[in-house]
Amino acid sequence: MDPTTNLRYLIAPGGVFEGRLRVPGDKSISHRSIMLSAIADGVTRISGFLEGADALATLAAFRRMGVEIEGPTQGELSVHGVGLRGLTQSEGPLDMGNSGTAMRLLAGLLAGQTFPSTLIGDESLTRRPMRRVTAPLAQMGAQILTTADGTAPLRVEPVSGLRGIEYPLPMASAQVKSCLMLAGLYAQGETCIIETAPTRDHTERMLTAFGYSVRRAGARVCLTGGGRLLGCRLNIPADISSAAFFMVGASIAPGSDLLLENVGINPTRVGIINILRGMGANIELIDRRTAGGEPVADIRVKAARLRGIHIPVDQVPLAIDEFPAIFIAAACAEGETILTGAEELRVKESDRIQVMADGLVQLGIQAEPRPDGIRILGGQIGSTDGGSIHAQGDHRIAMSFAMAGLRAEGPIEVHDCANVETSFPGFPGLAAQAGLKIQEQAA
Ligand code: S3P
Fold first, then answer.
1. How many domains are contained in the chain?
2. 244 and 230 both lie in a single domain
3. Cα(243)–Cα(252) distance, rounded to whole angstroms?
4. CA 101 to ligand 1 center in whole angstroms
5. Which atom of ligand 1 is nearest to the CA of 177?
6. Quick one: 129 and 89 in the same domain?
7. How many whole angstroms from 345 Cα to the centroid of ligand 1?
8. What residues are labeled active site?
9. 24, 48, 263, 307: least CB-packed within 10 angstroms?
10. Regions of the chain with pLDDT less than 50
11. Does one domain contain both 227 and 315?
């Protein structure tokens, strides 16, 4: 991130969350909506698309590979699909910005093309591990060059064909699973992935919505290459990962009563609800319904006295992006919260265990990072002198510490917040509307 365009948040202490609001569209589903509609036959109309930098990077990449896309205008898009074999070579490298999902899923999709591609990203993305996708893709016959450290840039060379494999995932990762499913569309025969734990299944659901057969039996998910996707209509729900900040905010700010509208509650994403409820949160799901193959509901959250818990390990993949926000809830809870089995947090947009521990300690909270988790003892956040936090360019860390202001003794400054734009454009405005005393300043 260019430091001259960076931002900081200034949060005055206190505030109550009230009213109703709708957070932007789901990031994971937005990426997939572009990828699958681009290689479908016919036009796909999408609504609720997240106009954040990450999903827009995916959109730009497909435009550069010859796909006509109208919009986005207020989350509405029309994608003129070119069919499974209709993409064309981009003139220069495809820049995935800050987005691990875009880079890892595209690596799979591009591995099956008849032209070469280069995938690049920003400083954070260039540090993140890519062998987790390039190694199984190589087993399928793909040729992808990385740096000696197994990081981007990725140079994807055309090959004469891919072959389906059976691949037990070494870690719980929807990105690796989805990458291999996308490569599997171009492979001869069947591609099967066996999961260690359930992870988000948006790729499977969306392929089905495009009329492509995906077979699941227990932990095993399979598809056969060479089929056809048919353009369709997609309604993308609000992102539970963005709603999570408000769920935590409303839980920790005394007197709060907030309604979050039309939030995706896919069972592979609801760890945040289960964990907060385990801590004593007051969360109600209202008017459960289905939209575009995904379950949605309105979520009402009232303030509650939270208590620390040992977070069940089976909830970790279901809440993998929500831990920065959960750590703020833990800092406001009575007693200790212990997280284990979450070493994946160290290779997200930042090392989320270390960066969150550093910030919590800075605010006077006892937080001990561990290789695969953290121990947090609830306490008073900050002092009357205020506190200063560095988000290390990680969007979810910036938004989590902004919420801490609701229970802080003094003002909190959060530095390096520009990347909030990757997943949650308009965050400060919406947070202020809910009741957070937040100001955004150029840094
Ligand atoms: C995502 C999967 C998760 C998640 C990421 C989005 C996806 O990553 O953290 O924000 O859209 O498939 P991993 O697969 O690395 O766990």
1. 2
2. no
3. 14
4. 6
5. 14
6. yes
7. 11
8. 321
9. 307
10. 1-4
11. no
Tokens of 306: 């939270």
Report the alpha-carbon distance of residue 174 to residue 199 in Å, rounded.
5
Q: How remote is the CA of residue 201 from the centroid of ligand 1, in Å?
A: 11
pLDDT tens column, 322-352 = 999 999 999 999 999 999 999 999 999 999 9
- Are 226 and 244 members of one domain? no
Instruction: Compute the distance between CA of residue 88 and CA of residue 67 in angstroms, rounded to an integer.
Output: 9
- pLDDT score recorded for residue 386: 86
The CA 5 to ligand 1 mean position distance, Å, reads 27
Atom of ligand 1 nearest to the CA of 174: 14
The residue whose CA has the least distance to atom 10 of ligand 1 is 321
Residues 66 and 142 in one domain: yes
2 in any annotated domain: no
For residue 178, give the ligand 1 atom closest to its CA.
12
Write out the residue range of the structural domain in which residue 325 sits: 7-25+237-442
Q: Which of 235, 260, 284 is the last residue of a domain?
A: 235
The enclosing domain of 89 has a CATH number of 3.65.10.10
Question: Apex CA 49: angle with CA 116 and CA 226, to 5°?
Answer: 40
Return the structure tokens found at 374: 């953290």
Ligand 1 contacts (CB < 6 A) are 28, 101, 173-175, 178, 200, 320-321, 344
